[in-house]
Amino acid sequence: MPKIIGGSLAGHREEVRARVFAALRRQLYERGFDAVTLAGVAAEAGVGRTAIYNHFTDKEHLLVAFVEEEADRYVRRLREAVAAVGDPVERLATFVRLQLRALAEHHLPPGGALAGTLAPAAYQRVAAHGDPIAEQLREIVVAAIRAGRIEPEDPDVLVPMITAALAVRQVVDVPPDRLDQVVEAAVRFVLRAVGVKSSN
């Protein structure tokens, strides 16, 4: 019988998933999804080759589970950060900063590449995790319009335009010592684009 990691079956499951996701993250960033194998991830994670198949049927299932967990964690962090800010414009600035830093830190293939890598149903599950982020941005934009802090444009236009601006990897593909400067320049760009008005 396989050794239980973590003291209980539930703890074991969480520990295995944490180890596997950490190994997958490193391999994705270093080699890309095409080079990933379940056996290779299991070996790096220090879990049995058979055990990994008890959690993930194939590497596509593993990638979807990984993206879902990463996205859920990020959405919680995003909501907490935005909720901690009172001013509508500063909420938008906070959103922009977090989105760009997440883009800089994570190197999963962009949407088009993922669409070509995953089966349609799996890609739809991954893509669905963008929805809570867009919903959060919509709430911020609508609140800023209602407060008279940005130009009263159609949120159906503003939200995808802001989202597109924050998805350009070249913006954050800079040396680490320049990232703060680049992010703040991007914040200023977005705030100008939505017509931020003085709070006075």
Low-confidence stretches: none
> Please, how many domains?
2
Order of helices and strands: HHHHHHHHHHH
For the secondary structure, the number of strands is 0
- Give me the oligomer status: single chain
What spatial form do the alpha-carbon principal axes imply?
A: elongated
Question: What is the CATH architecture term of the largest domain?
Answer: Orthogonal Bundle
The percent of residues in helical segments reads: over 70%
Return Rg in Å.
Answer: 20 Å
Output the number of helix runs.
Answer: 11
Would you state the CATH class of the largest domain?
Mainly Alpha
Key features?
single chain; 200 residues; mainly alpha; Arc Repressor Mutant, subunit A; Tetracycline Repressor, domain 2; 11 helices; elongated
Structure commentary:
It contains eleven helices and no strands. It has 200 residues and is an all-alpha fold. The protein has two domains: 56 residues, Arc Repressor Mutant, subunit A (Orthogonal Bundle), CATH 1.10.10; 135 residues, Tetracycline Repressor, domain 2 (Orthogonal Bundle). Helix 1 packs across helix 2 and helix 4 runs parallel beside helix 8. The protein is elongated, with a radius of gyration of 20 Å.
Task: Provide a concise account of the structure shown.
This is DNA-binding transcriptional regulator, AcrR family. By secondary structure, the protein is mostly helical.
